[in-house]
Amino acid sequence: MLKANRPLPACFLPLCDKANFMTIQQIADKLVAYCRNSQWEQAQRELYADDVISIEPEASSVFEKETKGLPAIIEKGHKFDDLVETMHSIRVTDPIVADHTFACVLEMDATMKAHGRTAMKELCIYTVKDGKIVKEEFVM
């Protein structure tokens, strides 16, 4: 019988030492479930660190390239919601987990107030530290 002489990958380890810890896989699965139900703010309040950083593909007239801090990221979500006239569909793939990072693809079909109907597809990459998401990055 072979014995493992190396530690388990981080995705199999608890991310904090509390009795109700979540693994990175559980955090990833929970975030995806919230996103599939458009529960963005609930996901952020529960799963994000207070000093979380959000990185967009590029700066725009509406959003900065980088947003820092949970309150600012929640406000950014409200700003996005205000731009949407109708959300027709949201699709989020199952997460792929690697060490302290996970990723999923987010697809939205929405009618935007200023631009009409549009399809958006982006890769969402999340970094987890001490049981909380500390960075989200969106790549198109």
Structure description:
The protein has about 140 residues and is α+β, with helices and mostly antiparallel strands. It has a single domain (about 15-140), classed as Nuclear Transport Factor 2, Chain: A (Roll), CATH 3.10.450.50. About 25% of the residues lie in helices and about 40% in strands. The chain contains three helices and seven strands, in the order ααββαβββββ. Strands 1, 2, 3, 4, 5, 6 and 7 form a seven-stranded mixed β-sheet that branches. β4 and β5 form a beta hairpin. The protein is globular. It starts with about 25 loop residues before the first helix and ends with a strand. The mean pLDDT is about 90. It holds the Pfam family SnoaL_5. It comes from Filimonas zeae. This is SnoaL-like domain-containing protein.
Write the layout of secondary structure elements.
Layout lengths: L23 H13 L3 H8 E8 L10 E3 L1 H14 E9 L3 E3 L2 E12 L3 E14 L2 E8 L1
Parallel strand pairs: 1-7
Antiparallel strand pairs: 1-2, 3-5, 4-5, 5-6, 6-7
Helix pairs in contact: 1-2, 2-3
